[in-house]
């Protein structure tokens, strides 16, 4: 463990930039100095060994493919081997975009002061070494802001060719008052990736973020989203995760204005040997906010699913409506689901509920399908799809919902082939 | 077509023998009925034939079209022509009735080395059969049996059977919970499947379904054994006198 930390430190670049980025990095360096990297004995790392995110060479093939169903006619930013190679043309439907390098050269860039600050806020509840390290070291990323009262969209596509590559990306997203931003993120940053999104959803705005964490065989990543949500705004994050070695998704959403909403949800198709960790913290810090966390994982033999979800309700957050559910369907006997649901409530007039279940597919249903002639594996896939499909209700856009449903079918079918070999 | 010899079955989990030497032969083109009091082992027999887990065959054999049925997986039994209309059709939220039926149909064809049918031809076929059975189009789009009424579930079983066109149809208490109109529709569906290449086994507690589906042979099952076999008059005897007399005769 100590040696791998040293490896990362040796790799760290000198902070060359001047101005706001330099100062953001210096603050992050100080945070990282205090926190260091997490250890497996740390509270939120018991089920996922943090050491695996610092292993050198991983991955078993280039990741350049675009998942089936991703719409083509959408503004797209492309990263290749951890660097931006293409940004979309400006247009009325495209948020204003800058690379981290270009933004840093502009002393009056809107990102000055905001960059790094949401990550820093998130450190106050739980120390997050990987995130501080990311802010300190990231050299690439994009800064995107919508114009007020517009409806805009963006895709981010990561391609990476080198198996043993490492990538640290840090993005900053600002959704201006009254605007609506749809973000679709897909691809693989690197064999070993550390990604941070900071998202500022301003008053009356709406942010929808879909992540396709697939087509990443053998790869490891830690992906963190730190969001704050203003008055009457909504934050929506949906993650489809399959085809991984290890992924750790950390999401922190703070509801800071009245009437805000946070939906954090995800579906996992866990192949044998994969490890999928979703760790979510929703902080209610204003009255009349609503939050939902909905996670479902289909776990094959030899795969691990982790869900650590917390609803924290601060004392002024009266009339909070918080909901959390996590379920696993085990296909076979040796899949593992490790769930840690938490509620911490300091206001008295709130409604919060949480639940977690794990088990095999229903035996009566399975027999019914087979007795009509559907082979066992295919029957299990039908039941698994039905199980995962419940999460699709968390997605409001019908075409995105259908795209993800098709990807679920594709990944479940791949599992079938693996199972038969 | 189906030859059951000396079939003895116990529960896997408990030392409880449920089928205690069942002998039954069903020829192509015939309709058989098994009647018997509750708990006599009728459903167990149908489950064992369809290949459900949880039972242990202690003795005996089942031959279906010359093959050892007990060796086959449930899906192989279905593909080779066996169909069980469940006493309690299972609700499966999230799986559409039509999707399920098409998947089953194509899986069976594939297993038999036949080509898949086009989605539109299939849809047309299902629609026309649903209409004959008075099944609302809406039920085809809903999840399998989910929130269906008792009668809708039973008619849906008959729809699956009509579409899959099995060579051996086993109906386990398909009449229970049906009103007279629904029973007529179910019987019409079953009768339309009667033919020289198909056998039908109707399991029932009451005689009333047999007023609509004329059996060639009637068996009485008690305590995991077939205690009497006869013609349709045997069913009427049960209707008039109940099972008590028959049981006393054997004892
Ligand atoms: N899974 C089971 N566990 C315990 N008892 C069972 C089980 N299945 C069947 N039985 C028992 O076996 C007997 C026959 O049941 P069943 O085949 O359902 O009868 P029928 O369909 O004729 O009413 C009954 O006594 C029933 O309680
Ligand atoms: Mg029964």
Give an overview of the whole structure.
Chain A is an alpha/beta fold. Chain A has one domain (3-362). Chain A is built from 8 helices and 19 strands. In chain A, strand 1 and strand 2 (83-86) form a beta hairpin. Residues 1-15 and 417-421 of chain A have low confidence and may be disordered. By secondary structure, chain B is an alpha/beta fold. In chain B, strand 11 (217-222) and strand 12 (225-230) form a beta hairpin. Chain B is globular and about 55 Å long. The relative contact order of chain B is 0.18. The mean pLDDT of chain B is 93. Chains A and B meet through helix 6 and helix 7 of A and helix 2, strand 7, helix 3 and strand 8 of B. Adenosine-5'-diphosphate binds at residues 11, 18, 36, 38-44, 54 of chain B.
Low-confidence parts of chain B lasting 5 or more residues at pLDDT below 50?
Answer: none
Write down the secondary-structure element order of chain B. Answer: EEEHEEHEEHHHEHEHEEEHH
The CATH class designation of chain B is: Alpha Beta
In the CATH hierarchy, the third-tier topology of chain B is known as: Rossmann fold
**Structurally, how many domains make up the residues of chain B?**
1
- Please state the second-level CATH architecture of chain B: 3-Layer(aba) Sandwich
Based on Cα principal axes, name the global outline of chain A.
globular
Question: In a few lines, what is going on in this structure?
Answer:
Chain A is α/β, with parallel strands linked by helices and 421 residues long. Chain A has helices spanning 2-11, 19-35, 100-105, 117-122, 129-137, 363-371, 376-389, 398-420; strands at residues 76-80, 83-86, 96-99, 142-145, 151-159, 166-175, 180-187, 192-201, 206-213, 220-229, 234-242, 246-255, 261-270, 275-284, 290-300, 304-313, 320-331, 336-345, 350-360.
Name some characteristics of this structure.
heterodimer; A: 421 residues; alpha/beta; 39% strand; globular; disordered N terminus; disordered C terminus; B: Rossmann fold; four-stranded antiparallel sheet; 12 strands; binds magnesium ion
């Amino acid at each position: 463990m100590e040696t791998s930390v040293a490896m990362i430190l040796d790799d760290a670049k000198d902070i060359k930039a001047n101005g706001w980025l330099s100062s953001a990095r210096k603050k992050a360096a100080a945070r990282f100095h205090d926190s260091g990297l997490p250890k497996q004995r740390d509270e939120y790392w018991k089920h996922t060994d943090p050491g695996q995110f610092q292993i050198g060479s991983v991955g078993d093939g280039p990741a350049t493919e675009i998942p089936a169903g991703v719409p083509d006619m959408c503004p797209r930013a492309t990263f290749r081997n951890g660097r931006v190679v293409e940004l979309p043309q400006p247009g009325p439907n495209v948020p204003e975009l800058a690379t981290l390098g270009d933004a840093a050269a502009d002393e009056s860039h809107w990102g000055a002061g905001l960059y790094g600050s949401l990550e820093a806020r998130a450190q106050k509840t739980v120390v997050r070494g990987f995130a501080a390290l990311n802010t300190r070291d990231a050299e690439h990323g994009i800064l995107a802001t919508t114009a007020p009262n517009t409806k805009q969209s963006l895709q981010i596509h990561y391609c990476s060719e080198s198996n043993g590559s490492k990538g640290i990306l840090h993005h900053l997203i600002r959704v201006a008052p009254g605007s609506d931003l749809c973000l679709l993120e897909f691809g693989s940053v690197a064999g070993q990736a550390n990604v941070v999104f900071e998202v500022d959803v301003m008053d009356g705005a709406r942010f929808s973020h879909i992540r396709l964490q697939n087509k990443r065989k053998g790869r490891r990543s830690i992906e963190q989203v730190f969001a704050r949500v203003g008055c009457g705004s909504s934050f929506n994050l949906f993650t489809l995760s399959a085809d991984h070695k290890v992924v750790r998704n950390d999401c922190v959403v703070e509801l800071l204005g009245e009437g805000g909403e946070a939906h954090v949800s995800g579906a996992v198709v866990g192949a044998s040997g994969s490890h999928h960790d979703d760790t979510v913290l929703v902080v209610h810090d204003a009255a009349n906010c609503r939050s939902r966390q909905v996670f479902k994982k289909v776990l094959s033999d030899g795969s691990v699913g982790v869900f650590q979800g917390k609803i924290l309700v601060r004392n002024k957050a009266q009339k909070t409506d918080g909901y959390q559910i996590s379920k696993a369907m085990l296909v076979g006997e040796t899949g593992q689901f490790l769930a840690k649901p938490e509620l911490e409530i300091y206001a008295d007039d709130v409604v919060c509920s949480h639940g977690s279940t794990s088990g095999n597919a229903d035996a009566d249903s399975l027999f019914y399908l087979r007795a009509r002639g559907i082979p066992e594996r295919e029957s299990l896939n039908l039941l698994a799809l039905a199980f995962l499909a419940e999460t699709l209700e968390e997605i409001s856009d019908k075409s995105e919902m259908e795209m993800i449903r098709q990807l679920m079918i594709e990944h479940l079918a791949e599992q079938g082939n693996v199972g038969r070999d | 077509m189906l030859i059951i010899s000396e079939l003895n079955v116990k529960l896997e989990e408990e030392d409880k023998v449920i089928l205690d030497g069942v002998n039954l032969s069903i020829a192509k083109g015939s309709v058989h009925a098994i009647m018997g009091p509750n708990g006599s082992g009728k459903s167990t027999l149908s489950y064992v034939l369809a290949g459900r887990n949880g039972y242990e065959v202690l003795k005996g054999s089942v031959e279906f079209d010359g093959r050892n049925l007990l060796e086959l997986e449930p899906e192989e039994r279905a593909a080779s022509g066996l169909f069980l209309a469940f006493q309690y059709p299972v609700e499966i939220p999230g799986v559409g009735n039509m999707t399920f039926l098409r998947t089953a149909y194509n899986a069976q064809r594939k297993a038999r080395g036949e080509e898949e049918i086009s989605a539109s031809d299939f849809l047309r076929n299902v629609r026309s059969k649903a209409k004959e059975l008075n099944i609302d189009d809406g039920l085809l789009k809903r999840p399998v049996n989910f929130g269906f009424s008792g009668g809708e579930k039973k008619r849906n079983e008959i729809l699956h059977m009509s579409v899959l066109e099995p060579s051996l149809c086993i109906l386990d208490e398909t009449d229970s919970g049906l009103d007279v109109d629904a029973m007529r529709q179910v019987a019409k569906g079953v009768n339309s499947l009667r033919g020289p290449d198909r056998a039908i086994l109707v399991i029932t507690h009451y005689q009333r379904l047999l007023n609509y589906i004329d059996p060639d042979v009637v068996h009485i099952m008690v305590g995991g054994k077939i205690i009497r076999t006869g013609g349709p008059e045997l069913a009427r005897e049960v209707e008039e006198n109940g099972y008590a007399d028959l049981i006393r005769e054997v004892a």
